Amino acid sequence: MYYVSIGATSEPAKTAPHPIRPRYRLSPVDALAQEPPKLPLKFQPGKDNIIISGSENDKVKVYLKPFSLSFIRNKTVLVSVNERGLLNFEHQQEKPQAVPAPVPEAENVTEDGGSKVAGTVEGESGEAATQSSIENNSSVEESTVAPETTVVPPTPPETTVAPPAPADWSETFKGHRDSRPYGPTSVGVDVTFHGFEFVYGIPEHAESFALKDTESTDPYRLYNLDVFEYELYNPMALYGSVPVMWAHRENATAGIFWHNPAETWIDVKSSKQSDSSGLLSKLPRFFSRSESDPNVRTRWMSESGVIDIFVMLADSPSSAQRAYASLTGTTRLPPLFALAYHQCRWNYNDEQDVSTVNANFDVHNLPMDVMWLDIEYSDGKRYLVWDKTKFSDPNGMLANLTANDRKLVVVVDPHIKRDSNWNIFKDAESKGLYVKTPDSGDFDGWCWPGSSSWPDYLRPEVQDWWANLFTSSDFIREGSMFYVWNDMNEPSVFSGAEITMPKASSLLRFSVYPL
């Protein structure tokens, strides 16, 4: 197992004497289990490259001009970065200032009753003023001439002032505006898997296990969205985004983890014929590969952030997965009852409905271990609060289920109904725990309860506050067989573009939610 982090730590915003602003970079606790340990490395400088050895079997060859990286295991190149020279790091810019368009001046009347535009001169400024007058439909009324010797001045024209040039880099999508306050700051690079026919991973997509080429389609998109009726065999974004990709063949497994939560697009192109024109063709034969070896070319493009790649090389899938688990953490072992039969629908109307369904499983001698309740159990979509009319005795309902060793799961979505009379909403509001808008107000979006706000769960103090709601209230009885279901692991905003939160809100790390 071997992995290397390629971090864009030398970008201008961090090295310039007066940086515009630091780029966003995930902290280790956001997506990684821990900061990867630093291992002793050996450096072997060459004429135009440097060979870095982490162990006897693992090497990285760094080409300096042009820059590229070749990751080698057992004397075989498995992964190369920037072999095709597609490295992109869009430098930050100062925000352009609005420049008012020139205003056309009134016309003067000549002695013969004609007119001329005052102040018009040949050249750029005059052309701009004249063109502005035309484009903005500035009207100039015709002058009226009185009897021969009398000159009547014309009525001043009705001028329309052109709007100033845009002073930002905003974009619109389906009627929604993305303000992009920091401008274009995209990053990207190409990654090639050598000796492999297919690549896998980058969930979540409704696609085949082996990822298909994207030559004739959009790239695979990573961006958490609440998608209703998604399309099959489509690279469109879905509920989760995990930027890890794998390639496997006999005796070799390689993977990369793209440590960037911004909206990301990935192109894939598989070929059984290696590209002998690339930089790898220049490697010595003891690092060479057969000209008939297949390869898979990928290109990773993120809207913002930094380039931070972990490359994992191993002899088997299990070794590669251990490397990945040591990097991002292991999956918590689910309870045994998770493998049993679960009964769920939208929606059970009241306690009597739940009791009837529970009893009928026994009547028909059908196994059932878990009963689920959707949002209608709550008081007006105020999660963690029971509807006292429909569910007047939740403890009795739970006791009825647990009598047969059955469990209860209730939904608690991550948004909070905006209700000034509800203590949970007011508490979060007074402590400033909600996701903020660019003007520092609480974000207000539309979801199941109507007007809603979202706690900024990536802040440690918000995580503690949220956990306290479950441990300090009487909603869940201590020691009961009562569990919680989060049905929305992304900001789901019915009134937003693509049913999500605007990117300019303070919670810009969409794709880190499922990590």
From TrEMBL:
Main location as per UniProt: endoplasmic reticulum
Bias kind Basic and acidic residues: ranges: 171-180
Annotated signal peptide: none
Subcellular location: Endoplasmic reticulum
Composition bias, Low complexity: 95-107, 132-162
Pfam families hit by this protein: Gal_mutarotas_2, Glyco_hydro_31_2nd
Highest taxon of source: Eukaryota
GO cellular component, one term: endoplasmic reticulum
Region Disordered: start-end pairs: 92-181
InterPro entries, sorted: Gal_mutarotase_sf_dom, GH, Glyco_hydro_31_N_dom, Glyco_hydro_31_TIM
Positions of the Glycoside hydrolase family 31 TIM barrel domain: 332-498
Keywords: Endoplasmic reticulum, Glycoprotein, Glycosidase, Hydrolase, Signal
Family, per entry: Belongs to the glycosyl hydrolase 31 family.
Protein name listed in UniProt: Glucosidase II subunit alpha
Species for this entry: Dibothriocephalus latus
